[in-house]
Amino acid sequence: MKEITFKELGELPKNSYELIDIRDEGLIAYGMIPGAIHVFIEDLENSRTLQDIPKDKKLIFYCEIGRRSKEIDDTLDYLKDRDCYSLEQGYVGYIRSNIESDSQKAERRNKAEESIRKKFHKQLFSPFAKACKTYKLIEEGDHIAVCISGGKDSMLMAKLFQEIKRHRQVNFDLTFLVMDPGYNKENRALIESNAEALGIPITVFESTIFDTVDNIDKSPCYLCARMRRGYLYSKAKELGCNKIALGHHYDDVIETILMGMIHGAQIQTMMPKLHSTNFEGMELIRPLYLVREADICAWRDYNELHFLQCACHFTDTCTTCHEDGTTSSKRLETKKLIAELKKTNPFIESNIFRSVENVNLDTVIEYKKDGIRHNFLDEY
Fold this sequence. Notes:
Blueprint: E1 3-4, H1 6-10, E2 17-21, H2 25-28, E3 37-38, H3 48-51, E4 58-62, E5 84-87, H4 90-96, H5 102-117, H6 121-134, E6 143-147, H7 152-166, E7 173-180, H8 185-197, E8 202-206, H9 209-213, H10 220-238, E9 243-245, H11 250-264, E10 273-275, E11 283-285, H12 293-302, H13 328-342, H14 348-355, E12 366-369, E13 372-375
Parallel strand pairs: 1-5, 2-3, 2-4, 4-5, 6-7, 6-9, 7-8, 9-11
Antiparallel strand pairs: 10-11, 12-13
Helix pairs in contact: 4-8, 11-13, 11-14
């Protein structure tokens, strides 16, 4: 399929073309190009939406980075009589095309910080500070590596750390750590430009994780997540840090609990902090533990910020992955299930969260402690 650049697109009359987003549901949740319509790539051939577009309009398809849209075969029957194009660099290119001047960046950064202190203080900073206090995530003398993937969660976490440090209640140091496991140049540039715009002084180091898992057929996302965690621990320790902070939020926690039951036949949760088993003296902390994803999205949208869901170079060819190695399709399925249950039980989310705080061992058939299984008959 022919390619069209953003510059060329900008020179076309607005009513002469239709922008068509072909990304998956997990990606479009992070935003679409204004004015675009969405059609799943597997539905293109039978799409009524596509058929209803006037024949004299150009069809401009886009994906995340311009790879999948370029591979659409425009000689197929449903497209062969149409003027079709693939948007070069896709959605990432759209975000990067909005690079601002230094004064605009400063204005955006000030607005983002001000909104944390005022408009979203109750929704974001208060639960962040509560989690840090309740679970003792920040302690005197800590040096915390704030791990930034480039998504909305880790970017907000970095800003919240900057804000809580401003309060000077505890003396601790921060390093904003970005690992490049083999990002394509567009994704890396976007992470760097977003960090600059938000005033986050990142330290970037490189690894070859993507090359390592490239040819893995079974659970590449799980292996990738495990390897990334190990590289982050190693680099953080090298830089003198004693903790790494990841951007998992409240919704991640309750989805993990439910997925463990449905897909793993186990009751477990994502802990607010963990001792590393392989890196002595290191801890993992999750300061967004009590922060709701909807509030993170509201902060992002209010400040007109654009982040990637996944900067993985597989983004356009497989379902995007999550930090714990689960695919977004499973999470999306679980998220929809929780939303459906909420229609009849408004307390479903807090009940799932609190269920792992109220485990009654007298009514549990078996449980594991330090890897050892215990059966209720042992003490019956």
